[in-house]
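Here is one chain, start to finish.
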Amino acid sequence: MKAVLPTRLYVLLRGIRDNAYKVLYRGRSHLCPVCERQSRGFRSVGVPRRKNAMCVYCGSVERHRLLWLFLRRSTDFFNGRSRTMLHFAPESCLESQMRAAIGPGYITADLFDPHVDVRLDITRLPQSDQSIDIIYCSHVLEHVPDDRKAMRELYRILKREGWAILLVPITVGQTIEDPTITDPAERLRLFGQDDHVRRYGPDYVDRLREVGFIVDVITPANLSSPEEIVRAGLSPESGEIYYCRRQ
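Its structure:
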């Protein structure tokens, strides 16, 4: 039987570990765009391990740092105007800052997480047509059996002048999926995680456009110099930004 640490002991040990990382990574050669803290680098995480991946202060990883640079430099996200925003599967490193930037209109959503503002099925959203200014949905659609239905729902609720950032991991040359596969071990083998139902390729953009979105694809090189890419810990693991608007 697997031993389970008491909650207080677990929190204590995690705090000791996190403080040790902060000492170990003390330096100035890297800068996290999300928390704006300097370090000598980012720590390794993931399976397989990715070097220079996670900020030891806020926990952001490569795609979060790319997103934050994009929000700062290419959108009106931080203009202080009152808006509505729907954030699916909220990341702890982003949630508090996004809530502060958007205000009362910021809503976190997930189908299973009990700590979000609302529990929602992304394929059956209760929001009315063209009611949301901003949608952020990162690494969710690869878990959704009917991703096209989810995309249609996101398009439906987005305001005419609104925008959405809909991110997925691109891991193959062309999207592969098979809805008949439900065995977790087989999903892990074919799709990379036991709770994924497909692997996306670059044709992901075509799916977004088929439901009506205008899609701009932004890479780290579109936002940053080579020196800043290194300093912010961006890499191929950062992926691309899929910036979507209505026709």
